[in-house]
Amino acid sequence: MVPQHFYAPPFPYPADVQPYPFYVPPVEQFQNMHLVRPPMQPSWVPPQDLPNLQDDIRNQIEFYFSTNNLCHDTFLRRHMNDQGWVPINLILGFNRMRAFTSLVDTNYILDAIRGSELLEVQGDNVRRRNDWMEWLLH
């Protein structure tokens, strides 16, 4: 097969640049080529490869419901319903929880809380296990 040469037209501005020929391969040359894509690397680490992820999630949410934090956190206490429940979506909006929500879904986070001695889960709500009524704002 003989390469095809094309002639480039002269530039529209006056200069000392001379037109030059360039090579364009025929399309038929690429028709039977099979392109091999390199294997994709995951952009995030799967949860099973992070052994302490559930512990980190549970510890962070336990901190939000800890005595020391609830003494000062009127925002969280204002969002407790009359039974002390707080929607998990409210907690997932907190700055430190956003790091976890980019890795795992809400069910994974709720499963992490279920192992807590301080917290209990009902549906998509979380509260302190035993003394939730002391933290209600009346």
TrEMBL record:
<keyword id="KW-0694">RNA-binding</keyword>
<dbReference type="InterPro" id="IPR036390">
    <property type="entry name" value="WH_DNA-bd_sf"/>
</dbReference>
<dbReference type="InterPro" id="IPR006630">
    <property type="entry name" value="La_HTH"/>
</dbReference>
<dbReference type="Pfam" id="PF05383">
    <property type="entry name" value="La"/>
</dbReference>
<protein>
    <recommendedName>
        <fullName>HTH La-type RNA-binding domain-containing protein</fullName>
    </recommendedName>
</protein>
<dbReference type="InterPro" id="IPR045180">
    <property type="entry name" value="La_dom_prot"/>
</dbReference>
<dbReference type="InterPro" id="IPR036388">
    <property type="entry name" value="WH-like_DNA-bd_sf"/>
</dbReference>
<dbReference type="GO" id="GO:0003723">
    <property type="term" value="F:RNA binding"/>
</dbReference>
<feature type="domain" description="HTH La-type RNA-binding">
    <location>
        <begin position="47"/>
        <end position="138"/>
    </location>
</feature>
